[in-house]
Amino acid sequence: MTGRIARIRRHPIKSVGGEDLGRATLRAAQRLAGDRQWALLTEAGERHAGDGPRPARWLPKSCFVRGVASAPLQAVAGGWDEDAGQLSLTHPDRPPLRFDPETEGSRLVEWIAPLWPADKPAPTRLVQGPTGWTDVSQPWLSILSLASLRDLETRLGLPLGVERWRANLWIDGWQPWAERDLIGRILTVGGVELRVTETIGRCAATSADTATGCIDIDMPQALQAQFGHSDFGIYAEVVTGGEIALNDEICA
């Protein structure tokens, strides 16, 4: 089973924007470098974060600002402005924001506040951690299939796009839903080896249109109705590291 890498995506801040990459270096037993490097703690998450400026351990997603609690967050776009060394974000209902996450996290807190529900624990500060703030504690990558996405869009009669799924790698050339048969298999990209670990269960954050930040479907329910489960995509662990790039062949 052979495909090609069609998109490489990184999300510097958990649940806030994302960016495309032309290539990336993968390291054994590590997440994609720079992915979910930062996250916005909430008042509820502070009690788990410790007293220091940086939490000392991985924290569960319930500690942070997330799209499942605020559909408008799904319309935030953007990532690193490499020339300026800053993060640059946009949203249809907010002015553009450019800031240094190391020293200006409070500016992001203020910018996000109007997009966050008043009845939820408020965002408090932008934090780094000892590892990426992915939804699972294991250092895995998320891999999705464009053929499966096209099939799902056809079934639902709705354009969905890639951004709402917040994947790391998008693969083209596989048969629709063939990725579900890869659990336990090794994927190879040149000398890079990825071991597929499990499927990805989807939450209500994927129900929002990323162009508008408005709910356009109940995605977990739609997946359940179509397939009897709410999974879309697979996780994989880097076994042997190396560089990957767009259009590289990926084999199972």
What does this structure look like?
With 252 residues, the chain is mainly beta. The protein has two domains: 2-30 and 137-251, M1 Pyruvate Kinase, Domain 3 (Beta Barrel), CATH 2.40.33; 38-128, no CATH class. The protein has four helices and 17 strands. A hairpin with an 8-residue loop joins strand 1 and strand 2 (19-21). The longest helix is centred in the middle third of the chain and has 11 residues, at 146-156. The chain starts with a strand and ends with a strand. One of its GO terms (molecular function) is pyridoxal phosphate binding. Residues 94-252 form the MOSC domain. This is MOSC domain-containing protein.
Tell me the layout of helices and strands.
Layout: E1 2-10, E2 19-21, E3 23-26, E4 38-42, H1 43-49, E5 77-81, E6 86-91, E7 94-99, H2 105-112, E8 123-128, E9 140-145, H3 146-156, E10 169-172, E11 186-189, E12 192-201, E13 208-209, E14 214-215, H4 219-227, E15 231-240, E16 242-245, E17 249-251
Parallel strand pairs: 9-10
Antiparallel strand pairs: 1-2, 1-10, 1-17, 3-16, 4-8, 5-6, 6-7, 9-15, 11-12, 12-15, 13-14
